[in-house]
């Protein structure tokens, strides 16, 4: 199972939000230093998120560019990518893969156009949910659609990678809701990444047992609850 450290960008800094709430953030300093550290510890792929863009409060294009220049490993970029122009910009910044969320729920024709533009290997879809209640607009709004129905729709459209994040637990170190992850795993026949509340090696081993292909790690790495080099040896 691939372990994917997350670097969330807000105001040019690496931060973590609790349950996606911009008023409950913890800052962790220079995102370039964080990205380099994860690479040195053995990461083979990173997850970058432009929180300002996702929340409509700005953008972190320069920070993304600096992180991309500092890395020799690939990364995926998420956060506020809601147009073909934004998709092209993300790819031009060096992203190996782009993750879209809101448009994959609210604008399926645009999702189809993005898949046609980038191809399924370079476009992933974020399933952001409180359990199975889908969230959009930087996790701030509920969407009137079933998570499991969405998964079936995305598979039919040609999506091949989904990132499931449990918004209730993200940034909390509360552990995973494995029952919900298992339901998502059962409903999704292709590559599945999962995150939101991962607190220790036990969570990673549980994801591996469920057949999840990748885990996105945030606060647990920044606060030393998981040592990346050691975790890579275990999973």
TrEMBL record:
The active site is at residues 8, 128. It catalyses: 1-(5-phospho-beta-D-ribosyl)-5-[(5-phospho-beta-D-ribosylamino)methylideneamino]imidazole-4-carboxamide = 5-[(5-phospho-1-deoxy-D-ribulos-1-ylimino)methylamino]-1-(5-phospho-beta-D-ribosyl)imidazole-4-carboxamide. It holds the Pfam family His_biosynth. It is found in: Cytoplasm. InterPro entries: Aldolase_TIM, His_biosynth, HisA/PriA, Isoase_HisA-like, RibuloseP-bd_barrel. GO terms for cellular component: cytoplasm. Pathway: Amino-acid biosynthesis; L-histidine biosynthesis; L-histidine from 5-phospho-alpha-D-ribose 1-diphosphate: step 4/9. One of its GO terms (biological process) is L-tryptophan biosynthetic process. Signal peptide: none annotated. Its EC number is 5.3.1.16. Its main location: cytoplasm. Gene3D superfamilies: Aldolase class I. Keywords: Amino-acid biosynthesis, Cytoplasm, Histidine biosynthesis, Isomerase. GO terms for molecular function: 1-(5-phosphoribosyl)-5-[(5-phosphoribosylamino)methylideneamino]imidazole-4-carboxamide isomerase activity. PANTHER family: 1-(5-PHOSPHORIBOSYL)-5-[(5-PHOSPHORIBOSYLAMINO)METHYLIDENEAMINO] IMIDAZOLE-4-CARBOXAMIDE ISOMERASE (PTHR43090:SF2). Belongs to the HisA/HisF family. This is 1-(5-phosphoribosyl)-5-[(5-phosphoribosylamino)methylideneamino] imidazole-4-carboxamide isomerase.
